[in-house]
Design a protein that fits this description.
Blueprint: E1 2-3, E2 12-13, H1 50-61, H2 74-87, H3 90-100, H4 110-123
Antiparallel strand pairs: 1-2
Helix pairs in contact: 1-2, 1-3, 1-4, 2-4
């Protein structure tokens, strides 16, 4: 896929967009609209680095690590990334992603961060580099 970004005058080659799994705001009665009068569903495509995806996933986990991250289904990983995009600015995720890999040097959270990167590699294989064993 080749598109023009909002700041470029030359085409930018991008990988294919990953389809979304959820519609935020209308998927159940606990969401923003509560199943009310939906006027439109807007789809937003955001190009994200591996570090941005990992930071978004980490934010959406919000300390819910009672489950083994390596066993989370791909749909759940993608849902959590989409949830972060729903709640956080892409600019904030870009900022957080810029330093997220630095957490690999903190031994108290390094294994957790590695498991989050493995999850991202499973959920977004077309964008992810080869996983280090």
């Amino acid at each position: 896929m080749t598109i023009l970004s909002h700041t470029e005058t030359q085409p930018v080659a991008l990988p294919p967009a990953v389809p979304t799994d959820y519609v935020f705001g209308a998927s159940d009665t606990n969401d923003i609209l509560g199943g009310g009068d939906v006027h439109a569903v807007v789809t937003l495509k955001v190009a994200m680095t591996r570090d941005m995806l990992a930071a978004a996933f980490d934010l959406a986990m919000r300390g819910a690590y009672d489950e083994n991250i390596d066993e989370l289904p791909v749909a759940e990983i993608r849902h959590r990334v989409e949830l972060s995009l729903h709640m956080e600015s892409p600019w904030d995720l870009m900022r957080d992603g810029a330093s997220f890999s630095d957490l690999l040097y903190d031994e108290s959270v390094a294994e957790l961060i590695r498991s989050e990167y493995r999850a991202i590699d499973r959920a977004y294989p077309l964008m992810a580099p080869r996983v280090e064993s």
